[in-house]
Amino acid sequence: MPETANHVDPRRWKALIFIALAQLMVVLDATIVNIALPSAQTDLGISDANRQWVITAYALAFGGLLLFGGRVADLWGRRRTFIVGLVGFAVASALGGAAVNEGMLLGARALQGVFGALLAPSALSLLAVTFTEARERAKAFGIFGAIAGGGGAVGLILGGVLTEYMNWRWTFFVNIPFAVIAATGAVLVIREPAEGRNPSRLDVPGVILATLGLVSLVYGFTRVESDGWLGNRPLALFAAAAVLLLAFVLVESRVKAPLLPLRVVAERNRAGVYASLGLAVIGMFGLFLFLTYYLQIVKGYTPVVTGLAFLPMVAGMITGSTQIGARLMTRVRPRYLMAPGFTVAALGMLVLSQIDLDTSYPALILPGFVLMGLGMGTAFMPAMSLATHGVQPRDAGVASAMVNTSQQVGGAIGTALLNTIAASATTAYATAHAAGARSADLLKLQSMVHGYTTAIWWAVGILALAAVIAFTFINTGRPGAGSPAAASDEDAAAGAAEADAQIPVMVH
Questions:
Q1: What is the dihedral of CA 363, 367, 368, 370, to 10 degrees?
Q2: 3 state DSSP class of 388
Q3: Under DSSP, is residue 259 helix (H, G, I), strand (E, B) or coil?
Q4: Sign of CA dihedral 118, 123, 129, 130
Q5: Of 419, 430, 412, 428, which is closest to residue 458 (Cα–Cα)?
Q6: What is the 8-class DSSP label of residue 393?
Q7: Does the predicted TM-score (pTM) go above 0.70?
Q8: In angstroms, rounded to a whole number, what is the distance separating the alpha carbons of residues 321 and 142?
Q9: What pLDDT, in 10s, does the model give residues 327-350?
Q10: Less Cβ crowding at N or C end of the chain, within 10 Å?
């Protein structure tokens, strides 16, 4: 059986630098704009009702088109898609930084989402087909997982520095040098195996149904905060998403060349990764959001100090991913890293649920951040690797897109769910304690903190559920244990001819 690993690219580690740089740009963009949003809103005269669209326009385009972007990478070539995504993302960022009105900014954000949906899955699938030897793959995905996990917090730091000392426009312009360097490196260094292409025609009905279904789902969750869970618009959008996505599954089970081959998500290990990672991101997005507001409004930190306060979490993620996850990935089964990782992260969040008005950063917030970082970094590394390990090379792009889709949808759900829980708890606390309040300002802060801690408790439970799913569903063996190219039972059922084209997989 021929293996990709027999044709090792001598420039693969240089390629990793540029792939990781592109991933960092995409991930940090998800949070860097949040810090700059108040300044941009004031400068461009955006109303309070429309300011959410600066975030939502990106999320809708990115989340809705990810599966399409993953299949385009498989059809068109990952390297070419990667370069086009980088160039397009840079142009969209330049338009956003130069925006003179609300419409131009929202259009630029949507365009960033479109090209991000090409860039993100092509980056991860390039990594999957470039590193196939077990130990090298563990190290490469350790670096990639650290960036994927810590990039959001880096965005908070960079966003604070750029907004406070320069201008909100630089949170867009900063993407341009990232994209130029990564695109230049891709042209000069990155190569992909020729046998990894998928020559099948594009599944147009699948593209339409998946895009509309995911857009409806993501948009429905963005409306929950303003309309409530039982509002007419969220319910209608959720119903539309259910019908569209069910129709998508039926179409994919019948067409000759599906957008998302069901074998990609039907295999229990990959399904476990997508589900547990999506749940974990629900908790993580809520944490970033609540603690950013807590540190700035309750504790009075500046944007820069707030960003720096997240540094221990970033350090923990990098340590957990590169020093714990990468070193143990070839020695223990993935579920023995993912489940404990999510559990440690849940313990860190449990610590952070104890915050109050005068909480000490060194005594409570710092250890909570460190535990969160170590746990998520340890879990992210095997998750990123396992999500694409064992798929056929021609399916690597769409399998990579599923990782990003689970995170994007998880982020949208987390923001809506935890925001709604926090808002309800805040209102209930303020109402219950209004009579005995010594001052309105103090009651406002106490109510806010109560809302945050209530939502964080929910996030603890969600992370614990992610740990249970990871431990229950993921049963693959460690990389390199036994026959390196053994296919899973589920994939083998798809046909022996397809199995011959697989990347070496983890053995059950």
A1: 150
A2: coil
A3: coil
A4: positive
A5: 419
A6: G
A7: yes
A8: 5
A9: 888 888 999 999 999 999 999 999
A10: N
Residue 1 has a pLDDT of 37
- Shortest CA distance to 192 belongs to which of 83, 79, 75? 79
Q: Is the pLDDT of residue 48 over 80?
A: no
Closest among 93, 89, 74 to 203, alpha carbons compared: 74
**Which has the closest alpha carbon to 301: 154, 151, 157, 451?**
157
Closest by Cα among 161, 175, 206 to 96: 175
pLDDT, tens digit (0-9, with 9 covering 90-100), for 252-287 = 998 888 888 888 888 888 889 999 998 998 888 767
Distance CA 188, CA 103 (A): 37
Q: What are 268's two structure tokens?
A: 């229990």
Question: What confidence category does residue 491 fall into, taking pLDDT thresholds of 50, 70 and 90?
Answer: very low
Point out the least confidently predicted range of 48-52, 194-198, 296-300: 194-198
At 142, list the tokens: 């350790």
Contact 371, 345 (CB under 8 A): yes
Q: With beta carbons less than 8 A apart as the criterion, state whether 42 and 174 touch.
A: no
Closest CA to 405 of 293, 248, 250: 248
| HSE toward the beta carbon, residue 2, CA cutoff 13 A | 11
CA dihedral 109, 110, 113, 117 (to 10 degrees): -160
Give the CA angle between residues 266, 272, 275 to the nearest 5°: 100
Determine the Cα–Cα distance for residues 183 and 174; give it in Å rounded to an integer: 15
Find out whether 44 and 99 touch, Cβ atoms under 8 Å.
Answer: yes
Comparing 364 with 417, the larger pLDDT belongs to 364
476-492 mean pLDDT? 47
Please write the tens of the pLDDT for every residue from 427-481.
899 999 888 778 888 999 999 999 999 999 999 999 999 999 999 999 887 655 5
Distance CA 113, CA 63 (A): 8
Q: What is the mean pLDDT of residues 86-106?
A: 95
Mean pLDDT of 14-42: 82
Q: What is the mean pLDDT of the chain?
A: 82
Burial of 154 (0-12, 13-18, 19+ CB in 10 A): buried
The length of the chain, given as a count of residues: 508
Q: Give dist(CA 273, CA 335) in Å, integer.
A: 10
Q: How many Å apart are CA 182 and CA 177, to the nearest integer?
A: 8
Q: What is the DSSP letter of 281?
A: H
For residue 205, count other CB atoms closer than 10 A to its CB: 15
Nearest residue to 28 (alpha-carbon basis) of 116, 129, 156: 156
Query: Is residue 142 within 8 Å of residue 322, measured between CB atoms?
Result: yes
Angle at 17 between CA 16 and CA 22, to 5 degrees: 95
In the chain the first and final C-alpha atoms are separated, in Å, by 19
Q: Are 206 and 178 in contact (CB under 8 A)?
A: no
